[in-house]
Structures are given as C-alpha cells and as structure tokens.
C-alpha cells in the first residue's frame, strides 16, 4: 500500500512537472466563455508582412509572429504595443513556429531548404533539427521533447525525438503520405496539437474535419467536422486546433472565416461570426491562433494581413432556460395538453418560463402571483405573492431568482430573491416590460412596447447603474433602427439580441454594438422567410434556429435548412386541443416539449415533442431482412399478461450516427419494438427505445429513430395476435449502412428434467427474504459454449437461479449469475444465459413461498446436448445463527458452544435436559470442593512460619486465585445457562458478561498455574544457593512478582476484550403456522463470539500454549534441578554413597515435585484440546465427552492442598499448628 502511494505521488509529481513545462497557454474557461466580437488590431502588414500564418503566445504572454515577407520573427513582450524584438534568420517563408519554455524557437523552413530550424535563445544561433519533404504548416513539441511537423502537400504528420540521439530519423505520426478520406488518411493537414496524453489532434483541412490519433494508432477518430460519429459542426478547411484545460476543442475554420469552440452544449462560433470581411468583427481566411494566459485570443487574419486580438469577456452566467437540440424534421404532437386553466393561471395568461430543471413559472395577472410547478407535478407546488401589478413578463436565472415586470404602475423591474423570499428593485423603466431577459453577462434587458425600444442594464457592474439602449430609438417606425411595439426578446451567447417587432410583423437581429437591425423573419426580410402577424415571442434552439410565436395567426413556427414551417397551432384560431387563440408566450422544457400561454383561451398548453418522427424521408434502402415466425420461435409475454407471442430479436448496428427508418410487413400482422443495448424478454419495457403497430396498412409497423453509432440496438419483431406464425420482412432506410444480425435462436429442446420438491428436500432462506423454501440443486454440463434457455413447467410457482462454481445456501447472493421469479412468464422461471464449457454451473430450483412441495420440470434449449446431475452443496456446521445472518466459528470450543444446542429457550431449569441439571450439580460440587481446598490452603499458608520464604507467599496467593477461578467457573456456567433460557435479559448485561467473564476466568486460571511455577523456581533457587539463600530477598521478589504477574497475564489476554462481542439473530417468522401470529413464531438468539482474524487466531493459540505448557515446563525443570542439584551437593558432603544413589534418594524424597506438575498438565490437557478443536465440532452428539473434559480442566484449582500441602511434612506441620490455633480460639 505504501509503495502504491509513493508511486501515485511520483506520477502526480511527473504530471505536475509536465503541466509546469508547457510553453503555451491552455486556459480554463467558464461554462460558456464569450469573447468580444470586435477584435483589436495589434499588428498590420507593415509589421507582420503580407498573409501572416504563424503565431505563438507563450505562458509569460510573449507574442511571436512569423513575417513571411521579410523572413523574420516579430516578438512582443507582455502588454507591449510595439514589437520589442525582431529575429532575422536563414529561413524562407515560414508557415509555422513553436516556442518551448526555455525560449527556443522551432520554425518552418521547408519551402526552399526542406528543414525545420531551432533558434537557440541563449546563443542567438540557428541549427537544423529536422529534415522534411515540404513546408510544415503545423509545428509542435510535445512533453516528451518530440517534434511534430504536418506537411500539407505530403498529406502526413511526421515526428522526431529531439532528446534521443539514437532516433534521428523521422517517424510517421499520422497519415499515409497519400490523400484520402479514410480514417488512416489525411488530405492537406495543417494545424496540429499534442496533449499531455500524447494524443495528436490534426486539422485535416482538405477533408473538412479534425482527427484525433491516439498514441500508436494509425486510424484517427473524427472529433469534429465531416462524417463525425456524433453531430458536431460543419467545417470548411480547418487550419488550426487547440485544446483548453478541460480538453474542449477550439478550431480555426479557415474558409468559414471564423473560430469555433466546443463546450458542454456542443460547438458554436466564437469570433468572426459575421461573415468574411475586414471589419473588426470579421475575419478573412484566418489561419492560426493562440491564447494568452488570460484567455484572450490572437488570430492571424491572413487575407487582411493583420493580427487580431479578441478579448475574453468575464466568465458568463450559466443558462437558466432550455435550448434543446432538435433534428431537422422535429415534430410535435398537434394536440396540446391543458396543464393549467383560468382557475390556476388566471385570465388571459401571457408569460411563461421553464427552467433547466423543468420548473414551470406562470404569471397570474388577475391575482398578481407567480404560479410554479416543479418537474412532473400535475398541480402547482408553490405560489409567490409579490408587490407587483399586472406583470407582463418574467425571467428566472440559474440560481432561482425571478425577475418580474412591475412597470405598469410602479415603473420598475423587481427581483424576487429565492434565498430570502424578498423582492428588490433592480431596474427603473418608463413603462411595462413586455419582454425580460438576463444574458450570460448578467445584463438585464427590457422590451417596452409603449416606448418602441429595448433597454438594458448591467446587474453586476455597480458603475453602470443607468439604462442603456439596446435596440430602437424610442420612435415608432419600420426602418432598421426603429421598432414598433417590441415584445418578446432573446439574447444568445454571442450577445446578439433578437426582438419580436410586433407591429412591423418581423423579427429583428441586433448584433452586439450595432444600432441597425437585420430582419431575419417576416416583413421585408432580406431573404424570403415567412409571413408573420404580430409576433410576440422568440427563442433560439441549440442550432440557432428561430422559433417564433406568431400571435395573430395562433401558431408557433420554426426556421430550418429549408425555410420556415408551422409546428403547433396550425389549424387556425380556436379552442380545440390542436388550436390556439392569440397565444402570447412560450418556453421549452429540457425534453423539447413546448409550453404555450394560450391567452384568449385562458389556459396553458403543453405540446409533446415526438422524437420518433425525428427522421428524414429516405429513398435509399440500406438493408433488407427476411425471416419467419414459426412454432419453434422463442415465446414471450409481450405485455406481461396471460397471452404469449412468438418473437424474433435482431441485433442492429449502425456505422454512423443518424436517423433511420425500419419498416415491417409480411404475412403476419407484425409488431415492432427497438431496444437500447439489449432486449430482456422477461421485462419487455426495460431498455425500450421505441415501438409501433399499425394494423391494416401496407407497412404494418414503422419506426423512425435516431441511432447512435457507438451503441448497439435490438429490434424485436412479434405479432399483434398471440402465437401467430408466418413470414415477415424489414426494410431499413437511412443515410448510412446498417448491419442486422439475428440474435434469438429457434427453440431446440435438448433436455427435459423432471423431479419434485418434498418435505425431505433441504430448505434455505431464499434471497434472505423468504425462509424455509425447499430447493433442489443441479449441476449443468454443457458440451458447447453458446446461448441456452432454461425454463420450468410446474404447479409450485418455481423460482430459478444459476450460480457459477458453487452454491452456498447460507449466502444465496454469492456466485449468483442469473435468476428469475416467474414475472412476465406466467409464474414460471425462464433463464437465458451464455454457458461456457469447462465451467461449473449450478441450477437451483425453489419456490415462491415457504414449505411448498410439488412436481416440476426443467426444459433446456440450446445448440447441443446438455445434462443435469444432482449437486450437493457443502454445508458447514461451523455456523451460529440463521441463514443469511450467521457467524462462522473459528478454532476453539467455549462453554457457550458446548451447551448452546442443549439449552431450551424460555424453559425453567427443572424442565431442562438431564445433562443440564447434572452439569449444574457438578458445578456446585466443584465450587464446594474448591472452596474447601482454598480454605485449607489459606489456613496453611497464612501463618508466619509458612511465609518465611517466597514459596509460602506464592501458595497463599494461589489459594486465593484458586477460589476465584472456581468461583468464575460457576458464574460462567450460570451466566450461559440463564442467558440462553431467558432471552429477555438486557443486552447491556449480556454484552458486559460476554466481554469480561471468559477473560477474567482465564486470568485466574493462568495466574494459578504461574504461581505454582514460581514456587518451583524458588525451591530450585534454594537448592542452588544453599546456606547463602536470602529469605528476605526471596519474600521481596515474591511480593513484586505477585503484584506484576496479573498485569502481565492480562496484557496477553487484552485481545479477547477487544474481539469478544455479541452476535444477535432472529429466526424468520413461520408463516405456515396459522395458529400463531408471525411475531410469536420469531425466536431470538444471542451468542457470545470472538471475531478473530487469522493472525489474531494464531496469536491466541500461541498464548494458550504459553500459559498451559509454560508452567509445566518451569515446574518440571525446577524439579529436575532440585533432584540433580541436591544429589550433587550431597555427593560432595557424603562420599560414602555414589552420585547415582544420591539421585535415587533425592527422587524418593522429592518425587512429588515431578509428579505434581505432570498431574497438573494431564488435568489441563483437556482444556488445551477443547481450545484447539474446530468450532464445527458437534458437541450435542458427545455432550459429556466435551463437558467432562471442560470440567476436568478446572480440577487443578481444587488440588492445591493435596498437591502442595499434603505431601510436605513442613506444610502439614504448619497446617496442623494453624488448625489447632483456630480450634483453641473457637469457643466450645
């Protein structure tokens, strides 16, 4: 993990260094950046020569331009008006240049000398760095120090490494060297751009497109222009391309005399949008461009022999209204839906606004309110009451603030602030505003019909607090500077103002800064358009087509490539659903539906956009598909009802995105549907894109759809009537090729398997929702990898599941591939799946409800033989809990595990099993025995004679810990018993007992063992020291050891406190027991468990061995030391006996020292074995084997007196003396 983190840091550092090394500017713009349409000429022919083509602006805003006339490079430092430096070089007619971050300049010199030169900033000399075959119309140095050259006349881009001396020849980067239109061809490539991913973008000028070449790929991807997979923009000889920081494309569209750019809303014109010319807002054959670090744009205006600078205006506001993108034959349902009548919208509603989140705003002039509908709500969701009178228009910004006309009486425009629910005046006007608009620069426009003009005011610039004229001179008239009763207005992202000039029956366009309008529709337009009668509303869509509300004609019209046409309200004035009566305002929602204020009908009408008709009428068939529905065709329940239908599914792939028509006909009465990505016969509404049925015509179904080249579609042909068979054919029409491939295969039954679910069948918790469902598991064997269909016929409402590799009834979601519950298939499962050979698949057949039994059959259709064999899932008994809520036990048995299955819930002790009652008796007997042992031991070692050395102190403490250990045993036993038979005990009590009792019990057991080991060590020390043994030091060490030892042992057990917890689970209600409520059949279980990871489990096992084997080893070695050490000492003092005889005498005298630890070890071994047994052990089958072993492991705590006192003459003497003293004190 650490190495991965370091690697990520290194990659980030490398990426940051790449960004920092860029020599050119890649600004990050707002959502809809705007440049001043009027450029500033920073250099003319006298400075940059005739026909300049090459420009570069580096990151410190130094501008470089190649002067082809004088063969120089002209340089402006940041903000300098005049050139600050001119470089003279040995190059001829340079077409392009590129400047690196160190100031070196790479310049084209291919016209005469067939080379690219590098002018070195440090030495002011030039060297040849690349040999080429012709002029480089584009140069670029990428982040790997690779130089690229696009050769227009050789139709290719070549590259050469500048840093690798071994790679001194040019390599092909794009193109083949021959002109062509294929994706691996170029035709006159010009500008190029390489991003940090080494993706190469090429302005493929002659093919009117921009291509993207991924590293190592010879085929390009069309990202803009001709034949692009997705609709982008029409280009004419693009000559330059740049990516901004967000990877949006900016393109020089040479022969369209403009710069275009992409953003979230697609492509649009940025500068030079007013045709070819020499005005400040025009370009004439622009060739290349570059950004400075502020985002300003520098353009080589070739035919005008000048350099134009277009200033980036401040980041614009996001659009708050909808500008849908429609197809060329967009159609709306002619019959509108009334979403609001007079009771809601008031009398003669005139203004409406639909925001980008589909919130609808309508002004009720009768009640002076704003009525709001949030998306998809039938009834209004909010009504705003304000201090406005008879408002004639409104506009809503992206943040939800509402600008509303209040000019009729109070001569103002108000802004209702959504955050505070208060209104403020933002504009003073001289009459009411028949149209309001806030543009992307936060400028508010008001069209005043009574004043025959449109005024505007900046909302964000406090210095511009007065109104300015946007259109009209305030005098009624019809010339291009005048307006007559202007109403609806619209301002596009280029700040072009469109005005519905009502009494002049026209729509006027006022370009930014222009006082003369251009008639774009209606009376006296420059080109014949359409006759309008009092137009009152206007909107532009994403393609800048005009939508006009033609008020007195009661209709909405739209412009297109073939002129204007009527959309809705095309049946004259009236009150029918397909008519309008003096409509006044309209707006689009984000789906393209039109909302209209049908003023004279006192209603709001919604006209639904019909995407299915968004297709041209094609005359060229692209494919014909013929087939038949037969009795062997696949069946499905088309509408999920009781009737099933034969069908055939066909995969549809289109080469290019566009509009296509599918026409179906034949002997049958066909019903056609088309789906995105895939078709699910068990859910026919899923992924449904379009469908059609038209009985009785020559073409029985017709689908007009827009298909995306990057997506797969499925066409499904079925019939109107159930189980109809016959031939059919499909004709596909469109602009591009269409590939049709059959998907569904005829039914070919390879196997019928019959069986039954009985009371003896296993049960499981189906989907972790339905308990006690009988099931059968079958392994599927296939001989051929292919698509197979499995379905059931039964009387049990069969459910089907397919698993890969294994099925675990405790985890029914694990390894699950596919399932079906019989929905949309008459209650029987149907599984359609690709099966592969050499893979194990498990079919599980079960039921919808609990405890259902009965017969079933499974049918399998496929290409080859298939078989089913019984499969038995491996069920683990190492579990606690119910299915779907369980815990898998690890190593080790506890008293909880031994007694869990024997204890009966909510049953008093007298009614428990004999084993439980006998165990209860045994624990009491053991407690009494332990109590007697501890009392006798305490009597022995509490005397001062017994505590002359450390041994007595250890044994005194041991007599106490033995009593505590045996006491914790009885507490543990009764805690387990009582918490299992009484489920109402508080969880906090259970949690506390679970976490503490077992660790405390182990603490006293282990402490007892180590205290005994300390006794042995001290005896060995006594033998070693002999007469030099220091009793006081012995007692001092004993005190410290007794104090420290419990904490040391507790430290080794701390993991148990951390990992012990309660596991709670409830059984599912038994729905089959009708005599009880469901709640009465639910049983609650609580178990104390340990969640040990493998490493913690290993540690726990090691600690177990350490505490059980450790004291034994210490005791044994100490005893051996005492025997052999004592024998050696005696053999030196008593030479009349040899060493072997002394050993025998010592062993005879101290044999209890060896026998005692062995006995203790033997008695502790059962506990060790129990602790190492797997949790899967079925204790209920041999209860007393496990329970006896568990109880035996506690007997050492009851044998202190017998092991240490009884065999010792010294301690027995001390015991008798203490006992006699106690008797003497006790009165008769």
TrEMBL record:
Family matches, as SUPFAM superfamilies: Family A G protein-coupled receptor-like, NHL repeat
Repeat positions for NHL: 177-216, 477-513, 579-610
Domain of life, source organism: Eukaryota
Transmembrane segments: 918-941, 953-977, 1041-1059, 1102-1124, 1153-1173, 1185-1206
Keywords recorded for this protein, A-Z: Membrane, Repeat, Transmembrane, Transmembrane helix
A GO MF term: zinc ion binding
Pfam families: NHL (PF01436)
Matches recorded under InterPro entries: 6-blade_b-propeller_TolB-like, NHL_repeat, TRIM-NHL_E3_ligases
Gene3D superfamilies attached to this UniProt entry: 2.40.10.500, Rhodopsin 7-helix transmembrane proteins (1.20.1070.10), TolB, C-terminal domain (2.120.10.30)
PANTHER family linked to this entry: E3 UBIQUITIN-PROTEIN LIGASE NHLRC1-RELATED (PTHR24104), PROTEIN LIN-41 (PTHR24104:SF25)
Protein name: Uncharacterized protein
Species assigned in the record: Adineta steineri
